Amino acid sequence: MKPFVIRLLVVLTVILGTNYLLWRWLDSLNWSAWWIAVPLVLAETYSLIDVGLFGLAVWRIRERKTPPPPPSDATVDVFITTYDEPLDLVMATALAARDIRYPHSTWILDDGARPELGELATRHGLGYLTRSGDWADKPRHAKAGNLNNALMMTQGEFLLILDADQIPQPDILDKTLGYFNQRRVALVQTPQYFSNVPSDDPLGSQAPLFYGPIQQGKDGWNAAFFCGSNALLRREALMQLGLAGYVAEVDRGVHRALAGARGAIRKARRSPEAADPQVAALLDEVEAATDTAREKLRSGGSLSEITYDLRTKVEGAVRSLVAENFAAVESDLAEIAAMDLGGASGTPDPDQLDGAVERMSQRDWSPLGALGSVQAVLDAVSVERPDEAQPVMPLATISVTEDMATSMRLHSLGWESVYHHEVLAHGLAPEDLKTMLTQRLRWAQGTIQVMLRENPLVQRGLKLGQRLMYFSTMWSYLSGFAAVVYFAAPVIYLTLGILPVSSLSTDFFIRFIPFMVVNQLLFAVVGKGVSTWRGQQYSLALFPTWIKACTTAARNVWLGRPLGFAVTPKARQSEGSRWNLIVPQLAAIALLLAALAAGTVRLAAGLNEPIGTLVNVAWVIFDLLILSVLVKAVRYKGFTPEERNVDAVHR
Amino acid sequence: MQFTVETTPAYAEVNGSGRLNMVAAPLLREVVAAVVAKGSHHVVVNMEGTDFMDSSGLGALIGCLKIARQAGGDLRIANVQPQVKMVLELTSMHRVLTPYESVDAAFSND
Questions:
Q1: With helix as H, strand as E and coil as C, how does A488-547 read?
Q2: Mean pLDDT across chain A
Q3: Does B110 reside within a domain?
Q4: What is the nearest CA distance from B100 to chain A, expressed in angstroms?
Q5: What is the CB neighbour count within 10 angstroms for residue A621?
Q6: pLDDT (tens digit per residue) in A252-268
Q7: What 3-state class would DSSP assign to B93?
Q8: Cα separation, B17 vs B31, whole angstroms
Q9: What ipTM is given for this predicted complex?
Q10: What pTM was estimated for this model as a whole?
Q11: What does the alpha-carbon distance between residue A566 and residue A229 come to, in Å, rounded to a whole number?
């Protein structure tokens, strides 16, 4: 019955929404005020697509039955990732992890490499891992790098990933491992639930809609995705991902380097060093060798042989050049000795000379060393991925939210995922606005990075439903731009009397109101009584965060600028004025309030119509209700112990 | 999984018999790292007795390849069995880790 009701509401929402928007686009645009009319209709179109994608997810809500019992002999590594969280917090999680009933090994992955934590781990019989020496001077890739490092040092068939604050229940593995009896299942994600959040959830920490109908809906499309913590992964799937990525990277790197070889050599020929006929001859040999390599690559030759042959040829050429130079020196010395001018020193020992040739042929001394561009090409024709700490990187490093990118790649290789809808770990949410904003910014930035780098709509191997499910999450992070328009439009009408629609007549109401009602009904039915209002508020109220995420991620992906990445602090940040965190929103509130006053004056003066004023005043009130959540958030003083009792009952 | 090492003047031969899986992978890395550290920069992994390999095993081979290359040498594989060949081809890895017919053939044209 329930799926039918949801599907009916989805169909009605889409039909009524399309009907409304067609009228908006075709019949109602006020072209004389195009500068607000067009942004508004675009924002509305954005919102309809957003609702449509939501509808598509909930169309297939999958409520899974209890999985089969876990196999008796699976090997499991439990990873607790930490960077700078307080030691007692990490240890509380680690000890709870140790007490998980199903046999397993517990590891603390300490990216902060704190000796005290290492000692604590040893004392309690827990594994403790830090980055290997391979990572020195290489990109660290934050949490993805931390996990990739640990994967090379451990052996479990399955991995349970926990953030440092996510305290697992003893039965977490018993309840989830059984899903892996299906050989194609690579991921089991469980909800993230926070125990330090009061029932009114001022910071919008709990995500009942996401860890519920949305993930269940994505699960229905085999697109439930990895959220970084409280999830189990199959090592084989991750490693396969790492290998596929490795081959692709090596292939791309070698192609790119060889394609640039000619240009680099041409440039080197014009450099002063190339005036030396010996260096010029060496460049000829390098060119011949790279031409051969390119030819072999074109005919699908083995990358290991191509790279190895090129390197040996170039090294051989360098060595013979250096040896020639030495031979000349040697014969000069011999002549000097024959003339008996040098006294006692005599000719140098031939072994010593060989050693010198060897040394002079090494990278730093090589005559090629001076020809930087050529050397760079030769270094890049390699199967070692010299720019990375590890050749094989199972967890995706293209984004600061490695989780989503990783599961998307798993899905595109044909692996399956499971969303298990039962809270099996209790975490800690940020308790102040600043930390919360940092966290949301990071999630949004990461999501936009994935959208720009590996857009799901064009990834090979994904089914259409999976593409849309991933895209849906990315799309929802673009809401900041729409929010600005939704705040601006009523202000413009009330203060200037400019209406973005041609008229606010019955035409508008008969189309808009049914759509809105059905839409809200859909949310209510899908949300099953849990409040989705907090989520709706934050998706608009945090507009500066969402916009910043889009601009910084675009700059990062397209121009290579840093994101200004910050680890989400788990401990509460210091008190102090938090109002300056929401200056743009306070400005919006001020404008909306001023617009109410201006609208009243203009109505009284007969400058604005009553209907228009009524609609826009209602709209302003809606906007103010949306933004009011931030007042509550700023004044929130953190979670108090008394409320913990409430939480205990809730559990 | 058991590993044995034989050193010839031209190369070191690492023999692995059994299953090259996530349990054996770190061990293989250690064995090859030790061989290279002792001065044998050219390594052939003889996979005649390796009847099964998973992605972790293949990942370890890549790690070993990197170790040998960084020392100025190379790592090659020989005598791969059908399942191993399938894993190599499934991941397109045969383009990077090209299997040779025999241990002798691995470094024959050097």
A1: HHHHHHHHHCCCCECCCCHHHHHHHHHHHHHHHHHHHHHHCCCCCHHHHHHHHHCHHHHH
A2: 90
A3: no
A4: 11
A5: 13
A6: 999 999 988 888 888 88
A7: helix
A8: 14
A9: 0.94
A10: 0.89
A11: 18
The two tokens of residue A438 are: 């940092």
CA A425/CA A583 separation, integer angstroms: 36
Query: What confidence tens digit (pLDDT) does each residue in A136-179 have?
Result: 999 999 999 999 999 999 999 999 999 999 999 999 999 999 99
- In A, minimum Cα distance to B53 occurs at A236
Classify each residue of A142-172 as buried b or exposed e, where b means 16 or more C-beta atoms within 10 Å of its C-beta. bbbbbbbbbbbebbbbbbbbbbbbbbbbeeb
pLDDT surpassing 60 at residue A647: no
CATH number for the domain including B27?
A: 3.30.750.24
Are residues B95 and A390, on separate chains, in Cβ contact within 8 Å?
no
H or E segment and range at residue A186: strand A185-189
pLDDT at A550 over 80: yes
pLDDT at A646: 45
Nearest CA in chain B to A249: B96
**In which residue are the tokens 């929404």 written?**
A17
What digits encode the pLDDT tens for the residues A520-544? Answer: 999 999 988 777 888 899 999 999 9
- Residue B36 in any domain: the answer is yes
Confidence at residue A42, expressed as pLDDT on a 0 to 100 scale: 98
- Tell me how many domains chain B contains: 1
Measure the CA angle with vertex A278, ends A274 and A284; round to 5°.
75
Per-residue confidence (pLDDT) for residue A645, from 0 to 100? 45
- Tell me which residue range forms the domain holding B86: 2-105
Contacts of A355 (CB under 8 A, 6+ apart): none
B48 located within any domain: yes
Phi-psi region of A128 (alpha: psi -120 to 50; beta: other; left: phi over 0): beta
CB contact under 8 A, A384 and B69: yes
In chain A, pLDDT over 70 holds for what percent of residues? 91
CB contact under 8 A, A155 and B91: no
- The 10 Å CB-count burial string (b at 16+, else e) for A406-428 is bbbbbbbeebbbbbbbebbbbbb
As a whole number of angstroms, the distance between CA A408 and CA A592 comes to 41
What's the pLDDT score for residue A648? 41
Of the candidates B22, B55, B69, which has its C-beta nearest A383's C-beta?
B69
Q: Do A243 and B55 touch (CB under 8 A)?
A: yes
Domains and CATH numbers, chain A: 2-60+473-564+577-637 (no CATH), 76-233+392-457 (3.90.550.10), 272-370 (no CATH)
**Model pLDDT, residue A352:** 66
Coil/strand/helix, residue A370: helix
Q: Which two tokens mark A163?
A: 């953030």
Asked whether residue B68 carries a pLDDT value surpassing 90, the answer given is yes
Q: What is the pLDDT of residue A340?
A: 61
The whole-number pLDDT of residue B6 equals 92
Rounded to the nearest angstrom, the minimum Cα separation between A250 and chain B is 8
| CB contact (8 A) between residue A240 and residue B91 | yes
CB contacts of B110 in chain A (<8 Å) are 312
Task: Report chain A residues touching chain B, CB-CB < 8 A.
Answer: 152-153, 155-157, 235-236, 239-240, 242-244, 246-247, 250-251, 300, 302-305, 308, 312, 382-385, 390-392
What pLDDT shows up at residue A650?
42
Whether residue B28 is contained in a domain is answered as yes
Q: What is the pLDDT of residue A316?
A: 84
β-strand pairing of A76-82 with A158-163: parallel
pLDDT for position A346: 52
